[in-house]
Amino acid sequence: MTTADYSLYLATDADLLPTEDLQLFSLLERCLSQGVSVFQLRLKGVSTRRFYEIGLRVREITRACQVPLLINDRLDLALAVQADGVHLGRDDLPVSEARRLWPEGILGYSVNRIEDLAVAATASVDYVGVGPVFPTATKRDTGPVLGLSGLREIVREARVPCVAIGNMSLANAAEAVAAGAAGICVISTVFKADDPARAVAALRREIERARHGRSVDIPGSSRQRESSGTDRASPG
Ligand code: TZP
Ligand code: MG
Predict the structure, then answer these.
(1) 52 pLDDT above the threshold of 70
(2) Most C-beta atoms within 10 A of its C-beta, which of 74, 97, 114, 223?
(3) Does residue 182 line the site of ligand 1, with CB under 6 A?
(4) Burial 120-158 (b: 16+ CB within 10 A, else e)
(5) Model confidence, pTM
């Protein structure tokens, strides 16, 4: 098993990204330097060639920022761009097959029901994405919304880190941490923000605050906040 820090897991949605390369890569660079701990390149509906080309450049950026790079859906592209891992769902290549082909890659699997954990276990996945925790417009073909109670139930049964996904934001990050999530995965909260890099920094501070009751220095982040000493998350 490969361990990573899943605190703030940033993923993309092709519809929310600039189409122009310079803008795209500069945006990702700014976000990745503000406290993202894992990055997933997720480009539904984009051609294989374009996905590959973007992936190559994103590999350079993530290396420079020392952020692990995961590729969504596509084991072939993950290997081709020398990513650190791949994230798969129930409609993708079976995770057991991905594990067989790539024993050392970080392998993530999307989970919506307790039963999905058994599939994850057969392939020794490294982490599971659990969601949608809250209703989201970013992905339509999801299972039922879990809520924090559903997240808590899955966390209780899981033997690997659980990353909460589905409309995760500053307003609910602390609750996800209190429910036992190893971190949160965000798309629209960052990419729909007026200042995405600032949104990243604020989310990271909030997660650290929820975990430790204080803020910590995030490398590259310009704004740190003083400790409030309180945790407004509801109890588990
Ligand atoms: N899987 C479950 S919900 C979701 C995915 C990919 C979308 C998350 O996007 P957002 O914008 O953070 O709700
Ligand atoms: Mg998928």
Answers:
(1) yes
(2) 74
(3) no
(4) beebebbbbbbbbbbebebbeebeeebebebbbbbbeeb
(5) 0.91
